[in-house]
Write a structure and sequence with these properties.
This protein is an alpha+beta fold. It has a 14-stranded antiparallel β-barrel. The protein has a two-stranded antiparallel ribbon with strand order 1-2. Helix 2 runs parallel beside helix 4 and helix 7 runs antiparallel to helix 8. It starts with a helix and ends with a strand.
Length: 464
């Protein structure tokens, strides 16, 4: 039992308990005055001898001597657990964690609190205590076991919540043009661009939070409701304020929110699923609402083999502009992807996306295609887990107006590469810092859309 190990971590004293501790029920036996070491030893023997009521009484006596004793609270928590009172046990375990003086004490208290909270039927709180136990785990093997326990609780928990974010210094926070000269098909037709339309440097901060609840679940189907909030804010540097004194930081801020209902079905063999989704939401830009939207989607995933999975999806989205109906748009998209695990455990991913947008406003009407290739290393490279990606894309506008109609429309070609580095060994409660390096450019026959970006994003990710 872990109490024996814990007792070695607390201080040994020769002070009297300050109370009378019974060796049996109070009404049946005479009382005895015990020193603290004697009381601790008796508590251990009581728990090992399946006498939780006696252990509880001893723990209360220890708390009279020291109300902040992590050992006494841990004994009391274990006694409550043995007597089947998970709620009282969890409260005592939480106090043991609060007053713990060593990493071992914190780990044992958090691990016990997690077990008792799970027995109460509170999976979300169980996940919190498991993360606290991970933070104080005495070995990598125990941390891995706790991660497996966490995954099990997460599967059983109808509620889920995730949050990610980061801070990204960037050479182009506003997706601005490379140069001040407005050039179309090699000819400087329309003069110079304003400072706000050129590439501005600064820092991008993002927070992405998702909360979901499983409404219904069977062996072959499940229904989930989820809400997402994405917030992006910009802080321009002094160079950008000098180049574009007319713009403010909030002009480039963005907020996205949606609510999604998802129905998932298991089909055929294990790992094959079909899902149907419906979403509604809003997008805000520069402090003003840009549009509301409604989207429906259909997806299919096949587990071809233990190493290979394939997916296909399609969606239709209607956007309703806050300015006028003239700016409404309709988008249809399809995507396909494949993931393959090589012999050494590394992962390779390939995805293709096609999108068609129609609108009365011709600058919104476009056809786009993109391809993304990813590679993930299974083993750590030094202190890091590394993955990399490459994106190639083209967007074609049959008609486009930039002061006047662009001959032949507008064509944009994008090339971006990114490397993500996760540092799992310096985590806190299972959250590890991550660094993302991103570089790329977009080429266009309209120079306003010729862009370059070089950025480093600092964030955090959950390891499990």
């Amino acid at each position: 039992m872990r109490i024996a190990a814990l007792s070695q971590q607390v201080r040994n004293g020769a002070l009297a308990c300050g109370c009378l501790l019974a060796a049996a029920p109070v009404h049946a036996e005479p009382s005895l005055a015990l020193t603290l070491p004697e009381a601790r030893s008796l508590a251990v023997h009581a728990l090992q001898g399946d006498r939780p009521a006696l252990a509880s009484q001893i723990a209360h006596g220890l708390l009279v001597a020291d109300p902040r004793s992590p050992y006494a609270h841990y004994v009391l928590a274990t006694a409550h657990a043995d007597m089947g009172d998970a709620t009282a046990g969890r409260r005592s375990a939480a106090r043991a964690y609060r007053y713990a003086e060593t990493t071992v004490q914190k780990f044992q208290a958090a691990e016990l609190a997690a077990r008792l909270t799970f027995a109460e039927g509170r999976p979300t709180r169980t996940q919190l205590w498991l993360r606290r136990a991970v933070q104080n785990a005495p070995s990598p093997e125990i941390e891995e076991q706790l991660a497996r326990d966490y995954a099990r609780v997460r599967r059983e928990n109808p509620f889920r919540f995730s949050i990610s974010g980061g801070v990204k210094p960037s050479s182009n926070v506003n997706n601005g043009a490379d140069t001040a000269q407005q050039v179309i098909d090699g000819l400087p037709f329309t003069g110079r661009l304003s400072g706000g339309a050129q590439a501005l440097s600064g820092v991008v901060g993002t927070v992405d939070a998702v909360a979901g609840y499983r409404l219904r679940s069977t062996d072959r189907a499940r229904t989930d409701l989820a809400a997402r909030l994405f917030v992006q804010r910009i802080a321009l540097d002094s160079r950008s304020h000098h180049l574009a004194p007319e713009v403010r930081n909030r002009d480039f801020g963005a907020t996205y929110a949606d609510v999604t209902l998802r129905q998932t079905y298991a089909v055929g063999t294990r790992g094959n699923t079909v899902d149907v989704t419906g979403s509604v939401g809003e997008y805000w830009s520069g402090g003003n609402r840009s549009y509301t939207f409604a989207r429906v989607g259909l997806g299919h995933r096949w587990q071809v083999s233990a190493a290979t999975s394939v997916s296909f999806g399609a969606a239709i989205e209607e956007r309703f502009s806050d300015r006028a109906h003239f700016f409404d748009s309709s988008t249809a998209s399809v995507n396909a992807g494949a993931n393959y695990t090589v012999a050494g455990g590394d992962g390779i991913g390939l995805s293709v996306n096609l999108r068609k947008t129609e609108s009365d406003f011709i600058n919104y009407a476009s056809t786009a295609a993109s391809l993304r290739l990813t590679y993930s290393f299974a083993d750590q490279i030094g202190p890091a887990i590394v993955s990399a990606g490459l994106v190639l894309g083209k967007t074609d506008y049959d008609d486009y107006v930039a002061v006047f109609s662009v001959p032949g429309g507008k064509q944009d070609y994008a090339t971006y590469a990114d490397v993500n580095v996760l540092l799992p060994d310096v985590d806190y409660a299972g959250f590890a810092p991550s660094v993302n390096f991103r570089a790329g450019r977009t080429r266009s026959n309209v120079s306003r859309f010729e862009t370059r970006e070089l950025s480093v994003s600092l964030g955090f990710q959950s390891k499990f």
